[in-house]
Amino acid sequence: MRHAFTVLAACAAFAAAAPAQAADYVIDATHTTVFFEISHFGASINRARFDKKEGTVQFDPAAKTGKVNIKIDAASISSGVPPFDKHLKSADLFDVEKYPSITFAADQFTFDGDKVKEVKGQLTLKGKTHPVTLAARQFTCYPNQMVKREVCGGDFETTIDRTLFDLGYGPEQMAGKQVHVVVSVEAVRQ
User: Fold this and answer.
1) Which residue of 72, 100, 115, 129 is surrounded by the most CB atoms within 10 Å?
2) Structural domains of the chain ordered from first start
3) Is the pTM of this model over 0.90?
4) Where are the alpha helices (DSSP H) in the chain?
């Protein structure tokens, strides 16, 4: 019995230490959050998130390559304040009736050793597409015991100029041009 436990523990330790292999992954929406924050008159920070998102990741840590495709339901924006959400969804800002989706497509991964450092791609918002680099604050792959599969994920951040995406509502002193975006993502190997 003791020998069986030792072998089982050694196998579990090996699995945890084994590097991720080239594979396809699907975004786990329950462990993925996309939110942004923007200055409000320089006094406070307004924050909101998008509750509905989906996507896929192709990741090969040995070759240090990958691809990401994320689609966000623009109408799922939530600040926790219904009147503000209504304004965010209006034609003044995200215009969700005309532009129901926000997408991010990337195919350039930069590594620092074995860890993902950056993901470079194209953000499409309100029909405008511009390059965006998501910098990794942390990243790892691990054997998830609940789903019995490998999961890879991390926290990424960037800052965008909202006026490039036709989100220029209001004077700059009311809301700054710079929007801080944070993407916390986990994806399950298929």
Assistant:
1) 72
2) 20-189 (2.40.128.110)
3) no
4) 2-17, 82-89
